[in-house]
Amino acid sequence: MSKMLEYSNIDSPIHKLTGATKLIAFIIWAVASMITYDTRLLIFMFFLSVVVFKISKVEFKQISFVLYFILIFLLLNNIAIFIFSPYEGVQIYGSRTELFKIAGPYTVTLEQLFYQFNITIKYFSIIPMALLFIVATNPSEFAASLNKIGVKYKIAYSVSIALRYIPDVQKDYQEISFAQQARGIDMSKKEKLSKRIKNSASILMPLIFSSLERIETISSAMELRAFGKNKKRTWYNEREFKKGDYITIIIAMVLLILSILATKANNGRFYNPFI
After folding, report:
1. Which of 14, 31, 214, 215 would staple 56 via disulfide (CB 3.0–4.6 Å)?
2. Where do transmembrane segments lie in this chain (predicted)?
3. Residue 33: is it exposed, middle or buried by C-beta count within 10 angstroms (0-12/13-18/19+)?
């Protein structure tokens, strides 16, 4: 069974890219998405991210739990935006097209729906790339790539350990959960939600203590091996940039340029179809 957010060595064009390329491309992609609210460009980036995810051959179940969690957060975010600023879209686009009244000062407008649609599609344009970056990047090779582009090797190694630790945390969680269920603590859907949340504390506390113990073990092992003594170090998994890496970075840069051009063409960050 595949664990969520765990790196898996798959023969795909995405996995063949170096960790540094994925990081650089993702940062450029995120910046391009944050700069503009041009709906046309954001939709294009969303479909392109889905295509890239398909090319990676990563199984959906590896990211499904995190994706559903993000979608719930996105729903709550949209509700909060409407509650606290129901006419933000009206102010941005300079027009007001009322659809129907809810209650009190709350009236649904076409401009507000379009504004919140842009926020949603902005999330959708970044989320697949962010999750893909995590599951398609070898932690050790990623640390070597970070160090290669100028990041201090201590920081690079810390990032590597954090990524590598995700499957271990999941394994510990499952083992503690099974042990607690064997003691009669019900975590199934048969229990009420409030009871399940309360019972989850019996898993979280042992998980925290086991994580702290693991951190202490790793720290002691690194200290005994004189980690950090020298200013530089070599990497076993270091890889050189290839043609695919340069092409990927160029594509990301093109998207960033398009985002900047769209901002200038729209006389601001927002594309206004109501003019």
Report:
1. 14
2. 23-53, 65-87, 113-136, 246-265
3. buried
pLDDT digits (tens, 9 = 90+) for 195-241: 766 767 777 777 777 777 777 787 777 777 777 677 777 666 667 78
Q: Which residues contact 227 (CB under 8 A, 6 or more apart)?
A: 157
Which residue's structure tokens are 């709350």? 106
Asked if 169 contacts 207 with a C-beta cutoff of 8 angstroms, the reply is yes
Contact call for residues 255 and 126 (beta carbons, < 8 A): no
- Which letter does DSSP use for residue 152 in this model? -
d(C-alpha 99, C-alpha 87), whole Å: 13
As a whole number of angstroms, the distance between CA 158 and CA 160 comes to 5
pTM of the predicted model as reported, rounded to 2 decimal places:
0.75
- In terms of Cβ atoms closer than 10 Å to its own Cβ (0-12, 13-18, 19+), residue 269 is middle
* Beta-carbon count within 10 A of 182 CB: 8
- β partners of residue 217: none
